[in-house]
Design goal:
13 strands, 5-stranded parallel sheet, two-component regulatory system, 2 domains, 5-stranded antiparallel sheet, 8 helices, Arc Repressor Mutant, subunit A, alpha/beta, Rossmann fold
């Protein structure tokens, strides 16, 4: 199936020219535009005038740690983020996903796998953004606006969810009170039994939703089966500003 990727801009944050050149060539072969940045600071400056669909960030940058660069990108834009690094430590992977990366991939990489993962991130982001801007799910005093990824608590406090968090909560509110397997929650991404990415995302979402994340009220773990979103969900289309209710 042909992917509609033509023209999408991917920012590559990599200080090794040879690696950057390979990534640029691979992505160009599949219809992407690319922007090469040699450092985190270079990327942040360019984000003032450009809006890439995705940033591919190495952790070993010359001016700042890649985790810091990722956090600053996340604070500045809602684009997708992939970490592409030689660091294989589990702690780096968990921290990257905890702080908002959509995926974590190790060097050396297989070019077709890189493209597949880039496409997977973009598909998930598009899936989140396809919802009507005014569609809102409410449950137990919480309000989740699927159009802008905003989660509002019973006391009125707002949380802007990352793309990965919003994607996960969307699946939950659309399938409440049903046990969902890990593969369902990860969407189009292939999941191995040892993949902890979904558990990291569950943990991040629990910290926003649950008064006590260690004793969750909404997102229940069903050992050996998956996860259960225990809530009654109502749906509404909120009137736009200036609309007069019928």
């Amino acid at each position: 199936m042909k992917e509609n990727d033509s023209g999408k801009l991917i920012a590559i944050v990599e200080d090794d020219p040879d690696v950057a050149r390979i990534i640029e060539q691979v992505l160009a072969d599949f219809g992407f535009r690319t922007l090469w940045c040699r450092s985190g600071g270079d990327l942040l400056r360019r984000l003032r005038n450009l809006a890439p669909a995705l940033c591919i960030i190495d952790l070993g940058l010359p001016d700042m740690d890649g985790i810091e660069a990722m956090q600053r990108v996340r604070a500045q834009t809602a684009c997708g983020i992939m970490i592409l690094t030689g660091r294989a430590h589990v702690s780096d992977r968990v921290m990257g996903l905890e702080l908002g990366a959509d995926d974590y991939m190790l060097k050396p990489f297989e070019p077709r796998e890189l493209v597949a993962r880039v496409r997977s991130i973009l598909r998930r982001r598009e899936s989140v953004s396809d919802d009507p801007p005014s569609q809102t799910a409410t449950f137990a005093g919480w309000r989740f606006n699927l159009g802008n990824n905003t989660l509002t608590g019973p006391a009125g406090d707002e949380h802007l969810l990352s793309t990965a968090e919003a994607e996960l909560l969307k699946v939950f509110v659309r399938h409440p009170n049903r046990i969902l397997q890990r593969e369902k929650l990860m969407g189009t991404r292939d999941v191995s039994p040892s993949d902890r990415a979904i558990d990291v995302r569950i943990s991040r979402l629990r910290r926003k939703l649950e008064p006590d994340a260690q004793s969750p009220s909404f997102i229940k773990t069903v050992y050996g089966a998956g996860y259960l979103f225990l809530a009654a969900v109502d749906w509404s289309d909120e009137p736009k500003t200036g609309d007069t209710p019928a």
